[in-house]
Amino acid sequence: MHLFDRVADEVGLLADNPFRGEIGRVTATRELSVTGHDYFVAFTVLPARVVVLRLLSALAPGTDRTVGPESTS
Q: What is the pTM of this model?
């Protein structure tokens, strides 16, 4: 599956379960691994919506995130 489609699917699931993923590195954020890709979505949960803040590469310098089959998210 292409990255865009996978991200859209993963983010779409947040509507029913906005606290998926892990607590983010930045206060009041969460992080969700994109299955099958070395990316994760940073987002925040507000009372009536989920706001996607950024799509980040887990391979970028300074990113200490494990993404892939060994990830637990």
A: 0.79
